[in-house]
Amino acid sequence: MEFEDVLVIICLVVIAVYPGLPIYLMARARRAQPLWHPMGRVSELLAYALSAPIEPLPRRPVYGPFSSEASNKAIALLKRWLSPEQRRELEKRGSFDVVGSHTGRRYRIYPGKLNNVRILQDNFEVAALCFAPADAGFLPEADIMLAQKIALETNEKAALKVAHQSSRYPCSLVL
Amino acid sequence: MAKLCVPDHTGHKEYDFTPNSPAAKRAEKIFNRLMDKGYLGGKRMADGSLKKIRKFDPTAEEIFVHRQLVGG
Predict the structure, then answer these.
(1) Over the stretch A47-82, which tens digit does the pLDDT of each residue have?
(2) SS3 assignment, position B72
(3) A146 with A77: CB under 8 angstroms?
(4) Does ipTM surpass 0.90 in this model?
(5) Which has the closest alpha carbon to B66: A90, A138, A130?
């Protein structure tokens, strides 16, 4: 029996008696590495990544205007206020048209909070309008769309007075 | 049953009422308080027509109020 064989036997006996020893030794070896050594950090992260159990990331429950419950509630309300034709348009293409109460001009309201209203001319979008309730940031999109629809269909002048026109559209029809 | 809808971060709050009932008085009180704060109101009648309102209408099918409009 040679010296190496004796060493192997001693190691096996030690491991059999104290199975945690290799882990302890590896941890000590990791700690012994200088902290600034980049490979030390990489190996530590790698060891952690390989040893840590894979668990799903904790998900916080979502409340407020971005929760599906608030959105569904607002969409149901919007649909109650839409005419049958507008409801069909919303379901078919995701937007609906309204007619201004003063000018008789047609507008298209898209889902969104900003810049989501378009002025139509011969069924072409020629300008974009941006107006919304003052607390739009806290409201679901459908509530904002409903406020825009009511404003254009019942008080178009007041809506146009506050609305900003998008510079993406060169045509200045409104202001 | 008629409804007063006030949009908020949960979608909206609904206050159900029938004409000449305590619930209608409560809804009217809420409506007036919001109008004083500068809210705008619209009503939907049973035939589907919409109208801008400044005064509470207990005969409306549904009333929707929202904060004043601002340009974005």
Answers:
(1) 766 676 666 656 555 555 677 888 999 999 999 999
(2) coil
(3) yes
(4) yes
(5) A138
| CA B17 to the chain's CA centroid | 11
Q: Which tokens hold the place of A36?
A: 């600034």
Q: Do the Cβ atoms of A108 and A93 come closer than 8 Å?
A: no
Q: pTM for this structure?
A: 0.71
**Per-residue pLDDT tens for B19-67?**
989 999 999 999 999 999 999 999 999 888 899 999 999 999 999 999 9
Nearest CB neighbour to B69, from listed A138, A151, A153: A151
- Residue A27 corresponds to which amino acid? A
**Which residues in A have their CB inside 8 Å of a CB on B?**
63-65, 69-74, 77, 80-81, 83, 113-115, 130-136, 138-140, 143, 146-147, 150-151, 153-155, 158-159, 162-164
Other C-beta atoms within 10 Å of B33: how many? Answer: 10
Q: What is the DSSP letter of A136?
A: G
> Edge-to-edge strands of the sheet including B2-8?
B11-17, B2-8, B62-66, B40-44, B50-53
* Contact between B8 and A63 (Cβ < 8 Å): no
Give the pair of three-digit tokens for residue A51.
Answer: 């040893």
